[in-house]
């Protein structure tokens, strides 16, 4: 059997510390010190604005920032550049994403009467502006544009500003234009990396127009993008961010009946994203692990992005577990961005999972279907974020506010309680404001 780079782990032999070490994320292998590079870029853009953005774009991506207007002419040109089946597939995906997000858009709660005459509800409102980062360093991820801009549109966000790196020729893939059109955007900005995040954070004036500072930044990206979002959100008055959505992750849980070629294909589908991506195989059967790793070796050699996938596989794990309870323990400790369950009773196992960005149930639910067209957004937390955070939804583009209605009778009942509590806290002004309602 040919051996792959997967690190083999026998889960039952590990103590708590060993389990933690076994599930450690890879340290980012991207060149240079990511934190420092990003800090330098953010500081520079804060101080020098658009000129700094342009210089970093030229230095890192060999093209100045450019605004591409999504005009009827640009759409027609993009459509002509693609086979009709490509355009139809894009429309199919966009429709599914819109249907899912419309159906799951949160609605105001009903009023809840806690005391007679005191009624409250939660009302949902869209945020005013969203910066949308669409990855494009090694592949033009126009699917990420659909996965961000459509939920934002359904949520009712007024200003959506999409940025994506230029391709090698300094232009953009025609599908990016069509995706923008499907999502109803009027423009996309060609700029990527930390400099694009900085532009959305501080707001900048560029040759093609003005980018205003955005209230919240969304989107996946490589280590530089993820770090830039983190640093931007930590600035005083900085934007909110959706989540850490860095290099892709997939954990596949299989039993002895798994189809090796399917499990291997799924693992490689995420390994090919990035040298920093991480894939993990968890199984109750040593023989199945052997079959799948052999199959990974066969398939990886045929991939156009073999080098990236192989680099990622250096940090891959193959974990032998005693039973499916232990498999769930592994998943919940790791909190994968994607979890694929390919066991006899896959749906049953979902009940034991409480930390994963998206769960793909059964062998037909390929993670790739979710990446493109099932409906839910593929923008999901990585690096263990799934333990406390979900992926992008329409709610990510909205906020709630409570709305409180009080009748005169309601005030007569509740105001003495509030006044008493206020005086217990030593807050006399609060108490008097309540007293005035009680006596009205
Ligand atoms: N978690 C999710 O939901 C999700 C979804 C889709 C994609 N992804 C991940 O997004 C990532 C996309 O990465 P990508 O690289 O293809 O595109 P990207 O757009 O994220 O990054 C490209 C940019 O990185 C910057 N950059 C590259 N090298 C640099 C350096 N040495 N110094 C400073 N800046 C540098 C450049 O400015 C470039 O524009 C992958 O890791 C993929 O796995 C994650
Ligand atoms: N798997 C990625 C999320 O980690 C999303 C994606 C876009 N294109 C293909 N895949
Ligand atoms: Zn993917």
From TrEMBL:
Binds 1 zinc ion per subunit. Substrate binds at residues 248, 270, 273, 338, 371, 425, 430. The gene is hisD. GO terms for molecular function: histidinol dehydrogenase activity. It holds the Pfam family Histidinol_dh. It catalyses: L-histidinol + 2 NAD(+) + H2O = L-histidine + 2 NADH + 3 H(+). The active site is at 337 (proton acceptor), 338 (proton acceptor). Its cofactor is Zn(2+). Its EC number is 1.1.1.23. Keywords: Amino-acid biosynthesis, Histidine biosynthesis, Metal-binding, NAD, Oxidoreductase, Zinc. Pathway: Amino-acid biosynthesis; L-histidine biosynthesis; L-histidine from 5-phospho-alpha-D-ribose 1-diphosphate: step 9/9. This is Histidinol dehydrogenase. The keyword NAD applies. It is an enzyme of class 1 (oxidoreductase). NAD(+) binds at residues 133, 195, 222. Belongs to the histidinol dehydrogenase family. InterPro entries: Histidinol_DH_monofunct, Hstdl_DH. Zn(2+) binds at residues 270, 273, 371, 430. It comes from Brevundimonas nasdae. Catalyzes the sequential NAD-dependent oxidations of L-histidinol to L-histidinaldehyde and then to L-histidine.
């Amino acid at each position: 059997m040919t051996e792959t780079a997967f690190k083999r782990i026998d889960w039952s032999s590990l103590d708590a510390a060993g389990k933690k070490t076994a599930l450690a994320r890879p340290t980012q292998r991207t060149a240079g010190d990511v934190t420092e590079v990003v800090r330098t870029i953010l500081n520079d853009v804060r101080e020098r604005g658009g000129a700094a953005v342009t210089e970093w774009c030229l230095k890192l991506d060999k093209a100045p920032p450019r605004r591409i207007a999504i005009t009827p002419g640009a759409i027609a040109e993009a459509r002509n550049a693609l086979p009709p089946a490509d355009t139809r597939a894009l429309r199919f995906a966009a429709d599914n994403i819109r249907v899912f997000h419309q159906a799951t858009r949160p609605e105001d709660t009903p009023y809840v009467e806690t005391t007679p005459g005191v009624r409250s509800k939660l009302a949902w409102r869209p945020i005013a502006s969203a910066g949308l980062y669409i990855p494009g360093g090694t592949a033009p991820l126009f699917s990420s544009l659909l996965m961000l801009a459509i939920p934002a549109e359904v949520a009712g966000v007024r200003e959506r500003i999409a940025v994506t790196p230029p391709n090698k020729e300094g232009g953009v893939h025609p599908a990016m234009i069509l995706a923008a059109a499907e999502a109803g955007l009027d423009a996309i900005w060609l700029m990527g990396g930390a400099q694009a995040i900085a532009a959305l954070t501080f707001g900048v004036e560029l040759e093609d127009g003005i980018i205003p500072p955005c209230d919240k930044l969304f989107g996946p990206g490589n280590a530089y993008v993820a770090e830039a979002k983190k640093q931007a959100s930590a600035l005083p008055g900085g934007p909110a961010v959706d989540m850490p959505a860095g290099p892709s992750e997939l954990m596949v849980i299989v039993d002895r009946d798994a189809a090796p070629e399917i499990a291997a294909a799924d693992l490689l589908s995420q390994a090919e994203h990035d040298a920093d991506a991480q894939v993990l195989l968890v199984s109750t059967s040593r023989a199945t692990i052997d079959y799948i790793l052999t199959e990974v070796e066969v398939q990886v050699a045929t991939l156009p992005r073999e080098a990236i996938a192989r680099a990622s596989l250096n940090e891959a794990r193959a974990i032998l577990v005693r039973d499916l309870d232990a498999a769930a323990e592994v998943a919940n400790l790791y909190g994968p961005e994607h979890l694929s369950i390919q066991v006899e009773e896959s749906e049953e196992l979902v009940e034991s999972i409480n930390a994963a960005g998206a769960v793909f149930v059964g062998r037909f639910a390929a993670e790739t279907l979710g990446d493109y067209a099932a409906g839910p957004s593929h923008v999901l937390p990585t690096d263990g974020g799934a333990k406390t955070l979900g992926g992008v939804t329409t709610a990510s583009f909205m906020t709630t506010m409570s709305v409180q209605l009080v009748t005169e009778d309601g005030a007569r009942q509740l105001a003495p309680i509030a006044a008493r509590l206020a005086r217990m806290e030593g807050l006399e002004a609060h108490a008097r404001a309540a007293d005035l309602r009680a006596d009205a």
